[in-house]
From TrEMBL:
This is Probable multidrug resistance protein NorM. It is found in: Cell membrane. It comes from the Bacteria. The chain crosses the membrane at residues 21-42, 62-82, 103-121, 141-162, 174-195, 201-223, 265-285, 291-311, 323-344, 364-382, 394-415, 421-442. Belongs to the multi antimicrobial extrusion (MATE) (TC 2.A.66.1) family.
Amino acid sequence: MANLSDQTIQKQLSLRAKVKIILVLALPAVVENFFQTMLGFADTFFVAQIGLEEVSAVGVTNAILAIYFALFMAIGVGVNVLMVNAIGEQDEKRASKIAQQGIILAAIVGSLTGVVTFLFAESLLRLLGVEGKVLELGALYFRIVAVPSILMAFMFVMSSVLRGVGDTKSPMKAVIVANLVNIVLDVVLIFGFLFIPALGIVGAAIAGVIARIVATLLLVRYIRKTKEMTFRKEWWRLDKGSQKELLGLGTPAAIERLAMRVGQVIYFGFIVALGTSTFAAHQIAGNIETFSYMIAYGFAAAATIIVGKQVGSGNHAEAKSYAKLIAFVSAGFMAVMGVFLFIFGEWIGSFFSEDAAVIHEIGIALKISALFQPFLAVLLILTGAYQGARNTKYPMYLTIFGMWLVRTVFVYVLAITLELGIAGVWIAIGIDIVFRAIVLWVRMEQGRWIKGEKEMSFKDEVECQCHPNTKQPKLNECVNNY
């Protein structure tokens, strides 16, 4: 075999180094996502041992908390993007100020959601059709968990602050510890232990609050150890400019999440029309597929960090290169997950139901889902990349169009009109995913993905960075230093 040229070897090393950077950032985020999901699963699992009314109360509460999470996550997106942009510009002072302003905004929004929960817990639950014993238990659980929702807001935003400086390991550690605390306290407080009485659903709520307190304190500790940030007393006052930037980036991200929820409600009606067993199969298949989302969301977090830093540095070509590479790497991981879902989906479904018809439909749904996993990776990674490029509005518009029109129309046509049942539902979901992934990819290729700027050529970018005040730069010198 012929020896590789020095240039080829350099490219390979460069590619290997980039992949290593991606994995170092992405894998802790994947683990964090896993344990974040397990935090909710633990409560549901242990409460299910008490009774159906209790587990229903937790379920409806989590549906409302998902809206709260969308708000807190949106603030986190704004903080994360602005911080990585600032660090890309080597402006650590601005990154620190954004971090403090984000924590202030989290405190405000978390306090407001806490007040809303205290005053309107029953009213919010009634909107979901809850009544009787479930309403009583749900309101009790909801108030204990969500009145101190400032803790949830701090967890989302402080984790984003750490990711903003490229630290994805510390948020992972905090969530793992919170899970362990939550599981131990669930067992002790729900069922009782020694002199501690069995508190049932109240115990589950208290366990969750204590776990979030522990996680928040750990995140504060990790932030204080961060060398890249220096907090100042004067930055603890509201700064209108910073808050406007945070809301400008975060609001579209929040609307995108809420649009997905509303879109699901719209086409859920069609699935219900297919029958109870089909709807149950759809819900179970969706819960199983959630584990594949953890992988993609982890890589999406890495995409936001890396692309945001490159965009902040003005390296638009490098930002695009990283976005595409992360999409390909994530697609590889998701393809493996797709094979797993295709082969073992029906078997996993048997743990959730004993009904043969339901298990069969779960298998059909997950086999179809398996085929679209690489496209799902591309969609979520590019959404994260667009966010890193400070373009949160376009993914929002695309999500609204895809969820409310493409997905809903195809669910109706394929599942209802053509009578394909659950297969039609999941083919429709796949069509929506592929459509949005292709649109985001094409727009990026056209250079219309970085907010407020057109993508520069490689030559222009080198000249701009190396000799910003010189009309006739030494281009060869720049290329060597690039």
